[in-house]
Design goal:
Elements lengths: L1 E5 L5 H13 L3 E4 L11 H17 L4 E7 L3 H7 L7 E3 L3 H9 L5 E5 L5 H13 L6 H16 L5
Parallel strand pairs: 1-2, 1-3, 3-5, 4-5
Helix pairs in contact: 2-3, 4-5
Length: 157
C-alpha cells in the first residue's frame, strides 16, 4: 500500500522511524516533509500536501492512506481535513485506530508524536492500515452525508 506521511518539527524523529518501519513491512512510503528540522516550521503545508496526495491516489483508484504527525495531532488532523475527500481521524489508542477505519473509512491517521512512544505509534498505525471499512449501511449513509456537505454545502440530517 502507498502511505503518505507528513509532520512538523515535533514529529520528525517519529516520522523517520515510521518511514523506515513501514518500508520494511513492504509499503511504499512517500515522505512529504519537512526534510530539515526547523523549530518554527508550520504543519499545515506539510499535512495538506500529504492529504492531497492521498486524495489524488484514491481518485486514481490506488490503495493509499496517510499519516500526519505533530505534537498533539490536533492541528495536523484539522489541516488534512481541509482537503476534499479526506477523512482524517485523531488516533490515540487501539480502539480509535480500529474504529476510524471500520466506522468512518478514515483515510488519514493523525497522531500526537509527543503523546506516544515509537512502538505504540507503530502498533496503532498497523491497526489503522490493516482494518478494512465495514461497509455497514449506517456508516456508508453517514459518510455520504459528509461527502454531500463537502461537495454542495447542503446539510442532510
Amino acid at each position: 500500500m502507498k502511505i503518505h506521511i507528513a509532520t512538523d518539527h515535533a514529529g520528525m524523529e517519529l516520522s523517520a522511524f515510521l518511514v523506515d518501519s513501514l518500508t520494511e513491512l513492504g509499503h511504499e512510503v512517500m515522505d512529504h516533509g519537512p526534510k530539515v528540522y526547523d523549530a518554527l516550521d508550520d504543519y499545515p503545508g506539510f499535512c495538506i500536501r500529504a492529504a492531497l496526495a492521498v486524495a489524488r491516489d484514491q481518485v486514481a483508484g490506488e490503495e493509499a492512506l496517510g499519516i500526519v504527525l505533530g505534537g498533539s495531532g490536533n492541528g495536523e488532523q484539522m489541516s488534512a481535513n481541509k482537503v476534499k475527500g479526506i477523512r482524517a481521524a485523531l488516533i490515540w489508542n487501539k480502539e480509535t485506530a480500529q474504529l476510524a477505519r471500520d466506522h468512518n473509512d478514515a483515510n488519514v491517521a493523525a497522531i500526537g508524536a509527543r503523546q506516544h512512544d515509537n512502538a505504540e505509534v507503530l502498533e496503532l498505525i498497523k491497526i489503522f492500515i490493516t482494518q478494512p471499512f465495514s461497509n455497514d449501511e449506517r456508516h456508508v449513509r453517514r459518510i455520504g452525508k459528509l461527502m454531500q456537505f463537502e461537495n454542495t454545502g447542503e446539510v442532510i440530517y
